[in-house]
Amino acid sequence: MDAGTQRRVRRRAGNRCEYCRLPQESAPVIRFQVEHVRAKQHGGSDSLRNLALACPRCNRQKGPNLTAIDPRTKRIVPLFNPRIQDWGEHFTFAGVVIVGLTPAGRATVRLLKMNAEERIKVRAALREHGEKWM
What is the pTM of this model? Predict the structure, then answer.
């Protein structure tokens, strides 16, 4: 993937993870990654319509997955897709905790471990220092 495409993805995302919403500035030593929403092994491409900016943790947890289990209904559902879905329709913040509002939101929060202890600590530290992270 060329550097121009990567710059466009970063700019479109506002230089923040399109899943957990952490800004790149919260982890200046670790570069956020341009990831394939639909992995190449599942027919995904390098087109802008299939690329999202993800922090390394979200990218690693998501892997090539397209679906996960909604913890409420126990059904397999598609994961949140930042290219075709609005973040605010699927997630909200309760303080520094990300809450899934829909089956896709709940399944994505669970699979990506968005509320792991270290992530909550990072969001709490950002809030404490008055930095915008939502």
Answer: 0.93
Give the three-class secondary structure for 33. Answer: strand
Strand partners, 91: 100
Residue in the block written with tokens 């404490």: 128
- The number of beta carbons lying within 10 Å of the beta carbon of residue 30 is 11
DSSP for residue 16 = B
Q: Which residue, among 97, 100, 91, has the nearest Cα to 127 in the 3D structure?
A: 97
Is residue 35 within 8 A of residue 51, CB to CB? The reply is yes
Residue carrying structure tokens 């947890």: 61
Residue 46, pLDDT score: 94
Residues 53, 34: contact at Cβ < 8 Å? Answer: yes
**Rounded to an integer, what distance in angstroms lies between the CA atom of residue 73 and that of residue 61?**
21
Span 88-124, pLDDT tens digits:
999 999 999 999 999 999 999 999 999 999 999 999 9
Rounded to an integer, what distance in angstroms lies between the CA atom of residue 55 and that of residue 99?
18
